[in-house]
What does this fold into?
Amino acid sequence: MNKIQIPNISISNFKCFKEFSIDSFKRFNLIFGKNSVGKSNLLEALYLYSNMYRSDTILSSSFLQRDIPLNNNLELIFHNFDYSNPINIKTSKKELNIHSIESLEIALLDGIYYQVQNNNGETIKLPLLINNNRQLDNTFISINHSSIINNINVRSVILDSSLFNFYFFNDYSTSEKRVKNNTVSLFDKLQNLKMDQIVINCLKPIIPNLKSIRISSDRICEADIGLDRYLPINALGTGIYKIFNYIVGVPFIINGVLLIDEIDNGFHYSSLRNLWISLFKVCYTNNVQLFATTHSYECIKAFNDVYNEVKNQHNSNDDIQGIRIESDKKEKYKYQAIIYNNEELNNAMDNWEVR
It folds into this structure.
């Protein structure tokens, strides 16, 4: 198995995290804990790190996907709204710093800039501006992208591609219709590349009689399960379609990272085994590292149980971990990560408050 893309992480001054770190990640990382302990913020930090060469990444993760107006709200990304100190997100491989750009006229933010190192080892500044009048000195990379958001002209920099292939699923990102359209488009590409058998193979453990999948004239993904006609995949159940939605994207992020917020949302507990059977198979097949959050005991148990069943198929014995985030009872705004390996997960569950 190839090396994973994100080996560890350290975060400071980002949203709920004043200082937070996890020393080591595995191939499969399931994150849990009470509400408002930073599970989704951790995934967002991983997302920002992965796409650090686009200074507009923060807009999609913190504002547009969550339907938060942009007007004078950039301070929301800084811990306790204090933008006098930069955000820092780093691993043992790369580092991202996000600084404020204060207004020329008043004490509001004009924007932010990412400070990163390019492939030549040079430290560079990638600005994102919401003030049309702001002029920056020549230490900044020039603006090369502009869009209108909340009736504001936002200017940003797209310097390079992401550090690696990745995909970020969350319930904020798109409408149900758009998700379905995107899934159909991805599967269409897989068929054109003659790679659709990957998806079929990953679904067969949970749909044993699955023979093939096609796209109908109405742009609907349909399955041949040995009946007299094709059936829309979503007719096989919401859980099946959601699993299909997850695994269709994975072949496009080979050797990359998959981020899924609230992975079990919309699943009946009895479907969680099927979810993990498919995800383990497709992620191993494509060498993808997985980070997911959950509130469900049943999801954690299925995660651990299924891994124990399939690990020998993949010559694996140490590829999963549970990460429980909890707030410090003595110090406000302090959070810590408690790590559980494969053997510890089931034994510890009786003492957890996951929800």
The two ends are 34 Å apart (CA to CA).
